[in-house]
Amino acid sequence: LRSAFKGWGTNEKLIISILAHRNAAQRKLIRQTYAETFGEDLLKELDRELTHDFEKLVLIWTLDPSERDAYLAKEATKRWTKSNFVLVEIACTRSPKELVLAREAYHARNKKSLEEDVAYHTTGDHRKLLVPLVSSYRYGGDEVDLRLAKAESKVLHEKISDKAYSDDEVIRILATRSKAQLNATLNHYKDEYGEDILKQLEDEDEFVALLRATIKGLVYPEHYFVEVLRDAISRRGTEEDHLSRVIATRAEVDLKTIANEYQKRDSIPLGRAIAK
Q1: pLDDT tens, residue by residue, 138-158
Q2: What is the per-residue burial (b if ≥16 Cβ within 10 Å, else e) of 53-76?
Q3: The CATH number of the domain where 230 resides is what?
Q4: 265 is in an annotated binding site
Q5: Is 15 annotated as a binding residue?
Q6: In a domain, 148, yes or no
Q7: Which structural domain range is residue 260 located in?
Q8: Which PANTHER family match (predicted)?
């Protein structure tokens, strides 16, 4: 890596050949060893030497997963818009432990809490949902209460039928229940009322879109990421950040499952779609 930074131009192929083929633990050790050997932060070297799009992908890939989420969350709060779902993505697609680690990394990195920044930078119903989502520490097991699922599916159906999308009960259920419990609730919703809850959340309203992303991230994460990738690929040039983020954050988690879902939905391998 040191040699890749020296001389005329940066040897990006060499950087890829090293970092792209190392897992998170190996990348962390490389960073530590680089700092001990050369007295410099590898991330700062990468930031200084690489071009923008390639630089951002390499930087977020090189970070530890919790540091990466902290970095992405900070970027999302600084540039927050109502159509930016990165905060929902972090809050809903990570495990309870991963979200706690992301909050700790955010606190260490920014000297303030993630909840504090989200509350400051967001407004209205978006704030009402996002703050409890990023603050959540859900039960991570598989145990479910079917009576509770039945009762809360009824609550959700009543509120959504009345278009009371930001009702306290809707937010409480989505922000606190385990993913397994929510899955049971939404299955009962479909069985009892004959329609997938997402079909009733197709309003063009920005908050409804946020609710839809929340549910997909919690219960159908592979579908959520396929939609992000499809949008990024179809709007190449404007959505490189989204493409880089999904590849970097899911490569060591469930990218194979996401890629299979992408191919099933679009009849083209994900790699080929990205390369087109």
Answers
A1: 999 999 999 999 999 999 999
A2: ebbbbbbbbbbebbbbbbbbbbbb
A3: 1.10.220.10
A4: no
A5: no
A6: yes
A7: 220-276
A8: ANNEXIN, ANNEXIN D1
